[in-house]
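Give me structure tokens for this 188-residue protein.
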Amino acid sequence: MILSDLHFGKTGHFRKNGIAVPQSVYKEDLQRLTAQIQFFKPNYLIIVGDLFHSHENKEMEMFMRWRNDFKHLPIKLVIGNHDILKQEWYTTASIDCFDDQMQTGAFIFAHDKSECDDVADNYIFSGHIHPSIILSGMARQSLRFPCFHFNRTNAVLPAFGRFTGTHSVSPKKGDDVFALVGNKVMKV
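Here you go.
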């Protein structure tokens, strides 16, 4: 299973800095991850950056309890710009880290696709920008939805964490975009 931008610990980081964000946001993300793992039964997780959001906080303790329940599941993390915990922490959590990118066959996994090296004949999976698409209605109303954005050379995954912003993408002819609308995935 490939995921991007979970930003675990972000709500704790905000609370630590005096901004009241309910911990339930983080708990719901962790429960959603658990449900996905139980449903899909992946052999391992590949996380293309920003598994965590900042320095260690109370939410990391909750993650470690969760990790103990899933210690059989290998996690491979391509380090993102927010993954700033010490290497010892990742080692204790049994998370294999890759600095810039990880390659498996013809697939490259990177946090930010613009920082990939030697990508000829490879397909890149990345995150970082938290892609979204704006869908407009007949009466000038519009809604923004997180999305998967696929093109000929790469796929940009939406942020898994719900407490993130988004960046609108402008698909080109031949691109495929799948919006996350509620609990459904809708081809746009």
